[in-house]
Model the fold of this input.
Amino acid sequence: WSAEKIALLDECDRTETAQVWEHDGKWYMYFGQVFTKEEGGQTAFNQTYTAEQFSGPFLPCGNTECQLGHYFYIMKVLKDTRGREVILANSPPDGVIGPFEVNYLAQGGIRVQKFISEEN
Done:
C-alpha cells in the first residue's frame, strides 16, 4: 500500500469514485462530478481527464464528458475476457449495464462507441 494524491477539483462540490488507468503510454482518470444547485437538488457529470504520468497533473483535454446515451451514475473501465477495455456502468434502478466499447481519442479523452454483444 502506498499513499497517493487525492482527486479534487475546485469547481464542483465533490468528485466520486476516481479510477486511474494507463493506455498506450497515456494516463486516464475517470471520476463523477457532483454540483449542488442553488435552488436545491444536484446535477452530475462523468468526466475523463488525461495526463502524461500516473501522478498527474490530470487535465481536461479533448472529449472529457462520458456519455452512454442514457442516465448512469458511475462507470468503471475493465478488461473483458478477450482483453478489450470495456465500460460497465451503474444505471439506477436497472443495475449494471454494458459492456460498452472504449475508444481513445487522439486529442485526449475517451468515447463510448457501442454496446458489445456476446457475439462480438
In short: Residues 71 and 91 are 6 Å apart (CA to CA). DSSP finds no helices and seven strands in the chain.
